[in-house]
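agent> fetching stored inputs for the flavin mononucleotide docking request
agent> found them:
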Amino acid sequence: MTMRGITARNRLWLPPMCMYCVEAADGVPTDWHAVHYATRAQGGFGTIIVEATAVTPEGRLSPMDLGLWEDAQVEGHRRLVEAIRAGGSIPGIQLGHGGRKSGTPPMRPRVPGARQGTLEGWELWAPSPVAFPGHAVPTELDVAGIDRLVEAFAAAARRAVEAGYEVIELHGAHGYLIHEFLSPLSNRRGDGYGGDAQGRRRFPLRVVEAVREAIGEGTVLDIRLSATDWDEAGLSGQETAEFAQELVGAGVDVLHISSGGNVPADIPVGPGYQLGLAAQVRQAVAGGAQVVGVGLIEDASQAEQALATGQADAIAVGRAALRDPYLPLRWAADLGAKAWDEAPWPIQYWRATWR
Ligand SMILES: Cc1cc2nc3c(=O)[nH]c(=O)nc-3n(C[C@H](O)[C@H](O)[C@H](O)COP(=O)(O)O)c2cc1C
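agent> prediction call returned; pasting tokens
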């Protein structure tokens, strides 16, 4: 898979997955992150997108998230980049701001799913003062606040490039800030940043343009979108397909198509349930950008089928890759690779490929 002249060894992506484990709460990657990402690079992924990394401290989803809001955080990210590249993968990172869903309690001590509600006193910004159920009411951003956040995205992207990341993914999905502007369910503004689709797209497009300029021609720009809110009054696949065309015009190279997260909804979850949305976007951009499909794609033949039928240009595998970091190597074998050099095996493990 070639993006802006950068070639990944295959079409499998590790999607961004927050580890919520920066104990020092300073946004700096830890040993856990280095080992976690290095292992998945050695496991054969073509492209690895490091988890949602906040562009401002208050934009973290929890106090234990990664950040790139200051220069002191660059060095730790450089370490992740080196570990990912040494394993043979293209290093990427997701940059985001949590908007009205920022500041949830950390998953420490070990309480699975603890991230509910808003921490007392957390600064919560959003397009409109509309709370996500169970969270605090956010403060509406004024235009100066919007300008500040556009600049924060650009500055974080500049730092990401300095750290060596080759793919910058903007988090425009799952009910976080960019998605909150796009969706009429969370954007009730009466000024030029709300109202019709053009108004709701203005902040996201400003971020895309500022980041495109900040990262230069040699870096891939990717945006993750929730193609639908799964709610009749919210974003639809059709609206997102149209927006995708505008994003390509603004310099986006890759669209990573997810869904939901902005309001509670009945989502028809099942194998490959978001691939139809990816295909709709891919058709709309007609080769102007590449599309990544994601969501319960858990066996090799299903992934291969989605690529062969043109639903997506790449497949991201999340939870299955938390269970098995060597999933790409196993999938290569499932698809018939026999010799060690037919799959991205680390040379150190070549004896494990035959008995
Ligand atoms: C532990 C965990 C953390 C996640 N964190 C993020 C994130 O930081 N950014 C994001 O866009 N999606 C995040 N997601 C969603 C995944 O990237 C992916 O879209 C989702 O898990 C569906 O793919 P899967 O069925 O292959 O797991 C997360 C998912 C999990 C399981």
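agent> quick read of the result: The radius of gyration is 19 Å.
agent> awaiting further instructions
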